[in-house]
Specification:
With 334 residues, the protein is an alpha/beta fold. It has helices at residues 2-20, 66-80, 128-139, 158-169, 172-178, 209-213, 229-232, 238-247, 270-273, 279-296, 315-319, 322-332, and strands spanning 24-29, 32-38, 54-59, 87-92, 107-108, 121-122, 150-156, 182-188, 200-202, 205-207, 250-255, 303-308. Strands 1-2-4-3-7-8-11-12 form an 8-stranded mixed β-sheet, with helices on both faces.
Length: 334
């Protein structure tokens, strides 16, 4: 009996390792597939996995290193003590043709994927925002994971930029809530945020001075001018968009040492620099901006934030830190 239990455990371990070593092309829509790293086999028509109660979806940074972010996700599961048996971990890749991902029917993007722009090769015309919509629908359809109760979307750096814009425009909560599934966002260390009007930080206040020196300051992805069709189709004004965004369950994270104004991957455009000198300052300023709009536009904020001591611009340092793990466990339990 002991021998059979040990053998079974070893076989399960080896199957998890084999699954995690390469991205699995997965048909999340009738029209296209996404390549994803996962902690269990993915299939277009699997047997239901009734053990899964939480899905964690982690979005990579600018280097499109989805496998590295899958490892960060595994480390988070271990640090937070989220049981792998009941937690589905997915790391989708928003790949380019240079990445040469395996699988047919894949959309392939250029460097503007983080802004939500459409794929330009393979299955063209698919925005990462639409892909996230379809992935959430695929995970939550009740056929694969009938006991699913919560989905956690995590984005770091460039992935945090994408996820913050997605949180502003997405309507996924409505359908998920109807099926009894919570949606939680974790946005860490993006280079910039989407603002809802022309005001930007200046000292301890916010005003419109930045528009005169930087005409792009309110262009999408920094503001609401020129929003792409997928996003602009919603008949909501800035105030309504913010009120909906404020109601979403969002946790912000940033390293207390992520304060290098010359970091090689930091957005140094004038529109980004109008938000602050570095990622730490930009997140602090955006939180202050949210509080300002919440007061002026009568919106209650459901957002939390932590600065992780000793951490710079590192997803691994953030998501294995006791500070972040404690906050995430508290927030996800609400």
């Amino acid at each position: 009996m002991t021998y059979r239990l040990v053998t079974g455990a070893l076989l399960l371990l080896w199957s998890i390792i084999a699954v995690a070593e390469e991205a699995q092309p997965t048909q999340v829509s009738p029209n296209y597939a996404l390549a994803m790293f996962a902690n269990r086999p993915l299939s277009s028509s699997p047997a239901p996995d009734a053990a899964v109660e939480r899905a964690v979806i982690i979005v990579h940074g600018v280097r499109r290193n989805a496998q590295d972010y899958f490892t960060v996700g595994q480390d988070l599961l271990a640090a937070a003590r989220w049981p792998e048996a009941s937690t589905l971990l997915l790391a989708p890749g928003f790949f380019t043709a240079r990445d040469r991902p395996n699988g047919a029917d894949l959309p392939l993007w250029d460097s503007s994927w983080m802004q939500g722009r459409p794929s330009v090769q393979g299955r063209v015309g698919i925005t990462p925002l639409q892909a996230l919509d379809d992935l959430l629908a695929w995970v939550s359809d009740g056929k694969r994971y009938p006991a699913l109760k919560q989905i956690v979307l995590i984005g770091h750096s460039a992935g945090g930029q994408l996820l913050q814009r997605y949180a502003v425009f997405s309507t996924a909560e409505q359908g998920l809530a109807a099926r009894g599934i919570q949606l939680r966002y974790v946005i860490s260390s993006p280079s910039s945020y989407l603002y809802f009007d022309d005001r930007r930080p200046l000292g301890t206040t916010f005003n419109e001075d930045a528009v005169a020196s930087c005409p792009e300051v309110n262009h999408y992805r920094y503001g609401l001018e020129g929003v792409p069709g997928y996003l602009g189709a919603q008949p909501l004004d800035p105030k309504q968009l913010f009120q909906r965004y404020a109601s979403k369950h969002i946790t912000y994270l940033v390293g207390a040492q992520d304060n290098d104004p010359d970091h090689r991957l930091l957005d140094k455009s004038c529109a980004a620099e109008a938000q602050g000198a570095n990622r730490l300052e930009r997140q602090r300023q955006y939180l202050a901006y949210e509080r300002l709009l919440g007061h002026e536009w009568h919106a209650s904020l459901d957002h939390s934030q932590a600065e992780v001591p000793g951490a710079g611009h590192s997803a691994e340092a953030l998501y294995t830190s006791p500070v972040a793990v404690k906050l995430l466990n508290a927030e996800l339990a609400r």
